[in-house]
């Protein structure tokens, strides 16, 4: 085992603090990664504050990990020392269920995927995430970061990027399709970039117009404020697909009204509270209200290659590790454009 420095939440809602954790010895099929950058996802905050239910503490968050291979086990065939790699939201799954065999490891039914943090691995030990200096992961849950992407802007793609890429691909975003991205934050800004690169006509639906210039620069064709009631009148029946990145309760009936017949409203944001829904908002027009969670390992690699091919990563603000707690407050207050990334050399 190896002792490494990390930042951890010692208890629910407690400030994160510097500590040390143990990483397992490199096994036959394991890859030891020197973490260079780790993105801060709103999911980290939800889990560190137990917003999504009881959690495991101490908790080392972080599932947007970019780094360099430092050591490989004797059975590893996919990676070599020096390779640029990433780790996303999961580090294992059952590998045997229908979903795992279909490349949908995120929906593993054989016990569920094993999260990069706030989970228990097959060895019975808690998993610790990317706010740390190193991590050991089975090679099958590691992805390659293309040379065209710098590691700092690639890190958020391991969650924010795949979280938007997967539903946009699944629901057919592309030429001839009108797609709305609801929310212009860490997830939403990646949705704009990816939907634009896929060839869709892209509209941002945001609470205000204060980020309009950014949205248009990143590839949006249109930008509307949802705080303006006229938006819902003007855009009624407009979209083939709406992807909601919002993690607060919404008036889903209003947003379903913006869809065309047989359109889909897909949620990737996860509010802590239950939602209210009038089913006639779905029944009328044959509409779909759906959810999507990250993507499988193969699709995550596809997403990284796609982003590299189109020449973009995330829009980031690089921070030191001792700024993590401040960054959490700013994320909650929507004061980041658009993803905080930790320089892990400062841990």
From TrEMBL:
Top-rank taxon: Bacteria
SMART domains xref list: PKS_ER (SM00829)
Gene3D superfamilies registered for this protein in UniProt: Medium-chain alcohol dehydrogenases, catalytic domain (3.90.180.10), NAD(P)-binding Rossmann-like Domain (3.40.50.720)
SUPFAM superfamilies documented for this protein: GroES-like, NAD(P)-binding Rossmann-fold domains
Any Pfam family the entry gives: ADH_N
Molecular function terms, GO-annotated: alcohol dehydrogenase (NADP+) activity; zinc ion binding
Family statement drawn from the similarity comment of this UniProt entry: Belongs to the zinc-containing alcohol dehydrogenase family.
Protein name stated in the entry: alcohol dehydrogenase (NADP(+))
Protein's organism: Streptomyces actuosus
Taxonomy of the source species: Bacteria, Bacillati, Actinomycetota, Actinomycetes, Kitasatosporales
């Amino acid at each position: 085992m190896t002792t490494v420095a990390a930042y951890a939440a010692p208890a629910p809602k407690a400030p994160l603090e510097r500590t040390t954790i143990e990483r397992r010895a490199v096994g036959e099929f394991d890859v030891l990664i020197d973490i260079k950058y780790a993105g801060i996802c709103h999911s980290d905050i939800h889990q560190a504050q137990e917003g999504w239910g009881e959690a495991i503490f101490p908790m080392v968050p972080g599932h947007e990990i970019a780094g360099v291979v430092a050591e490989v086990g004797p059975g590893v065939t996919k990676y070599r020392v020096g390779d640029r790699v990433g780790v996303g939201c999961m580090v294992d799954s059952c590998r045997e269920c229908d979903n795992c065999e279909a490349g949908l490891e995120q929906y593993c039914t054989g016990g569920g995927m094993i999260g990069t943090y706030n989970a228990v691995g097959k060895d019975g030990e808690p998993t610790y995430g990317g706010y740390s200096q190193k991590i050991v992961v089975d090679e099958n849950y590691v992805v390659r970061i293309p040379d065209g992407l710098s590691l700092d802007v690639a890190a958020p793609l391991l969650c924010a990027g795949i979280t938007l890429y997967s539903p946009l691909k699944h629901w057919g975003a592309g030429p001839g399709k009108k797609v709305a991205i609801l929310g212009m934050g860490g997830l939403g800004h990646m949705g704009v970039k990816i939907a634009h690169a896929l060839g869709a006509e892209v509209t941002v639906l945001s609470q205000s117009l204060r980020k309009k210039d950014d949205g248009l620069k990143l590839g949006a064709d249109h930008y509307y404020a949802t705080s303006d009631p006229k938006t819902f009148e003007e855009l009624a029946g407009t979209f083939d697909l709406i992807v909601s990145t919002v993690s607060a309760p919404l008036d889903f009936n209003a947003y379903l009204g913006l869809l065309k017949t047989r359109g889909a409203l897909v949620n990737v944001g996860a509010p802590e509270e239950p939602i209210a829904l009038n089913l006639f908002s779905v029944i009328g027009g044959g509409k779909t209200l759906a959810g999507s969670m990250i993507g499988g390992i193969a699709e995550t690699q596809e997403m990284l290659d796609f982003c590299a091919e189109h020449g973009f990563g995330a829009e980031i603000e690089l921070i030191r590790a001792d700024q993590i707690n401040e960054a959490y407050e700013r994320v909650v207050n929507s004061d980041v454009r658009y993803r905080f990334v930790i320089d892990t050399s400062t841990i």
